[in-house]
Amino acid sequence: MQFKIENPDKEVLNIEAKLIQLPGTDGSFAVLENHAPLIAMLKKGKVRIIDKNGKEHLIDIEGGVFGVAENQCHLLLL
Question: E strands within 1-78?
């Protein structure tokens, strides 16, 4: 699935991911391929991404809005 992280000025990351773990305001959650459509608010924490090659990436965020539909994932940073 495609995962993009953007802030108001630019695209921060564009990666093909197998798993994305996010710090939701109601608790941590994960997204895998073919996840049901979802929009969620995120709090300060770490986003964990496992890319298509199995490499782990950790990104600190201050919060944001995450959405997924049809294997397209977007994180808009605050």
Answer: 2-6, 11-24, 27-32, 38-42, 45-51, 56-61, 64-69, 72-77
Mind listing the pLDDT tens digit for each residue in 40-64? 999 999 999 999 999 999 999 999 9
pLDDT tens figures, 14-46: 999 999 999 999 999 999 999 999 999 999 999
Domains of the chain as residue ranges with CATH: 2-77 (2.60.15.10)
Coil, strand, or helix at residue 14?
Answer: strand
Judged against a pLDDT cut of 90, whether residue 78 lies above it is answered with no
